[in-house]
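Section 5: illustrative case.
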């Protein structure tokens, strides 16, 4: 299972994900018991979480953009693009994806990314922090939960600056201060964003083996209204440690450049 998983994650890191959320999540199992709690009484989100199955891989569309006649799916994030943003989205293709150069996504739904970081993620919870680790890009996200405000001394970054708070049994994570140099993946579709991006996520461990995630995306420079991401349900993985997966972009970039010059994948 782990070897297959690693191959899948490599494909995802390079933008090869099947663009349909239904392929990213296996059947949701029955609850295996109540969520465990930490010494301070909060639900313990610790564990390795994944969609419950591997993700199919599709061929890249390296030589073709979406074209002027391409209409975003109703209800999708792209359907909320302002006119100039929609025109930009239609002009881009898979070869433009910054992930091909090992640049991590700002945010992603579960069929491509967990916690905006990678396909498989591990949570480590302490009284003052929730730490989210990922296999893809071998990255991390630190979320203070002790009441502090957003930092005002940090430069914009790929994953932004996060602060968390508990709303009953739900961990609310507010992330701002993004750079606009990477993309995000909403329901499997690549989506650029501006530096005004703000993502608010809500994590609930609804059972010992289930983690429910809701998110709202705001980007007033690009979107006409906030986008509510469909609820994602993650499963506790049958392994308790993630593995290192280093993204080496040298060969990938060369292959993509060659394919684009040859027009491979044009429709």
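Designed sequence:
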């Amino acid at each position: 299972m782990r070897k297959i998983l690693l191959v899948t994650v490599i494909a995802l890191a390079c933008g090869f994900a099947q663009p349909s959320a239904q392929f990213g999540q296996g059947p949701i199992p029955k609850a295996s018991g109540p969520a465990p709690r930490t010494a301070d009484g909060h639900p313990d989100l610790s564990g390795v979480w994944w969609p419950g199955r591997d993700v199919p891989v599709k061929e890249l569309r390296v030589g073709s953009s979406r074209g002027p006649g391409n209409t975003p799916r109703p209800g999708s994030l792209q359907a909320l693009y302002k006119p100039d943003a929609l025109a930009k989205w239609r002009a881009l293709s898979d070869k433009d994806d910054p992930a091909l150069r090992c640049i991590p996504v700002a945010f992603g739904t579960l069929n491509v990314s967990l916690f905006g970081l990678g396909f498989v993620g591990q949570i480590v919870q302490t009284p003052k922090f929730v730490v989210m680790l990922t296999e893809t890009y071998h990255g991390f996200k630190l979320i203070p939960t002790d009441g502090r405000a957003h930092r005002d001394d940090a430069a914009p970054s790929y994953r932004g600056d996060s602060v968390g708070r508990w709303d009953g049994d739900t961990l609310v994570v507010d992330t701002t201060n993004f750079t606009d140099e990477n993309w995000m993946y909403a329901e499997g579709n690549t989506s650029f964003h501006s530096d005004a991006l703000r993502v608010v996520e809500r994590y609930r461990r609804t059972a010992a083996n289930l983690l429910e995630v809701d998110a709202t995306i705001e980007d007033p420079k690009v979107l006409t209204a906030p986008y509510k991401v469909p609820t994602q349900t993650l499963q506790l993985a049958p392994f308790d440690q993630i593995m290192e997966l280093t993204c080496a972009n040298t060969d990938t970039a060369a292959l993509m450049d060659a394919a684009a010059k040859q027009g491979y994948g044009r429709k």
